[in-house]
Every structure is written in C-alpha cells, then in structure tokens.
Amino acid sequence: MLSLKRKTKGEAIFDFVNNIGMLIICFVTLYPIWYVIVNALNEGQDGMRGGIYWWPRIFSFENFVAVFQSSGIMTAMGITVAKTLLGVVLHVFFTAMVAYAFSRKGLIGGKIYILIGTFTMFFSGGLIPTYLLIKDLHMLDNFMVYIIPAMFSFFDLIIFMTFFREIPDGLEEAARIDGANDWSIFLRVVLPVSMPVIATIALFHGVYQWNDYFTGVIYINNTDLQPIQTYLYKVVAQSSSNQMLAQIPGGVGKTVTSQSIKLATMVVTTLPIVFVYPFLQRYFVKGMMIGSIKG
After folding, report:
1. Which residues of 59-87 are buried (b: 16+ CB within 10 A; e: fewer)?
2. What pTM, to 2 d.p., does this model score?
3. What is the DSSP string of 21-32?
4. Nearest-angstrom CA–CA distance, 190 and 196
5. Which of 114, 118, 194, 230 could form a disulfide with 226 if both were Cys (CB 3.0 to 4.6 A apart)?
6. Could you report the per-residue pLDDT of 15-58, keeping only the tens digit for each?
7. At what angle do helices 73-102 and 110-122 cross, to 10 degrees?
8. Within 10 Å of residue 44's Cβ, how many Cβ atoms?
9. Strand, helix or coil at 214?
C-alpha cells in the first residue's frame, strides 16, 4: 500500500494561509460583479434606498426591459458584435500571415524587421498624429476605423511566430514534396495545427474589440456607428441615462432610475464576453504555455 506523506506543521499552516488568501482574492474580485448584478435585478426605485448587498430586495427585470427598449442600445450592440467578429477574423489571419513569414529562417532582413517592430511596441506617434492619419485616410465616422488600425499587432506576432517555429519542419517538407506552395502550406498545414495559439489571440483581440470604447469616442460622431462600450461610457460619464429614460416607451420604466439603468447596461455589455471565455479556456491555457517548455 502507498503511504501518504504527512504534512509538517509549517506546511499545514502555509496551506491554510494560502487557501484563506485565495478566498479573499476571489471574494474581492467577484463581489463587485455580483453587487452590480444584484442591484441591476432589483427594482430601481427601491434600489435608491440602498442596503442591497447580497440578493435583490424586490426582484425585477424591468431595468433590463428598459435597456433593451432604448432606441440606441440595440444598434450599438449590433455594431459591437459586427466589429468584434470581423475584427477578430481579420486580425488573426493578417497577424498570423505576417508571423509565418517572420518565422521562416530564410527571410531577408528578418532581424531588422524584428527590431523595427519591437520599437513600435514601446513608442508610438501619439494621439494627435494618429487622429490626423485617420482623418487623411477618410476613416472618421467610418466603420472600418474599428477594423483596419487593429488588424496587426506586433505583440501578437511574437506569440504566433514562437508557435510557428515549434512546428516540425517535416510537415512543411512533406507538403512541398506533394507540390504545395507557401500559401497552401500556410492555409492547409500551419493554420490547422495552430488552433491553441489562434484561440488565444482570438480571445485577446476579441476582448479588446468588445471593450474598446476609446475609438468610438475619438473617431466616431455618428451615433449609429458607436459601439456598446462607447454607449455605456456616455451613460455613465455623461449622465445620458436620463435621456435613455425619455426614450423608453410608455408603460415601461415607471420604477426604473438612471442609476438602475447604468447598472443594467453594465451587465448587458459585460456578460456576453464572459460567456465566451469558457469555450476557449482549454485553448487559451495551452496557448499561454507557448515557448515556456522546450524539448
């Protein structure tokens, strides 16, 4: 029979303190989210009294009904979904394509390109030159301002490149013997075996696209092109939730308040990306280990 090694007193104390610390960290991380959800599910007028910490005092979906009946939020949600899906696909493909070229040993001037790209990770032109560039490219009040500037990231290129260099050379050699060119190898050999890193970068960029409010604030004046996070920014920072209340049809919103509208909007904008994460977690964990183990 296998004998279990008994923990020393010091090890037991360390494990106890470590578990308590983890519980505290989990509580501090999760409770603010729970607090927002609980208050969003509480009747708005009753919520103004305060004292709601663990469970709704008067359970109600009216805050969410009011949010979805607002004239602007559904348009903003559609813009966010569209730019997230299109942005992720183009970003992953374009960055992976460039990274595949960088991962080849025979690339002329490869080290120079790496140095130039690394420089751009630490220094940029700044907001004003970027705004002038976007203006000259006629992308102000244009949906493509969400897509084109974010199509490439040198940081993501490094992650892709590290993964591609670990793919056995025999796979590419076998494909070349069968008559495949570089495009065929990239599309039919490299990408299919790169799902862990693809899922990792897709999750990174998807979260960025979903949470990005700054692009809509700076480059978009047309309210029909503003994403949900910019919409939320205006609700929270500019008190436009009062305007939202005015947009709600009659019969709905009698018990909602501007504060309850803000909380419900936060929940609506946050939960979709939270629900996506579990489906990509197994790829994400594997992708994060890229380059950490050799041999």
Report:
1. ebebbbebbebbebbebbbebbeebbeeb
2. 0.73
3. HHHHHHHHHHHH
4. 12
5. 230
6. 778 888 888 888 888 888 888 888 888 876 766 777 777 887 77
7. 150
8. 25
9. helix
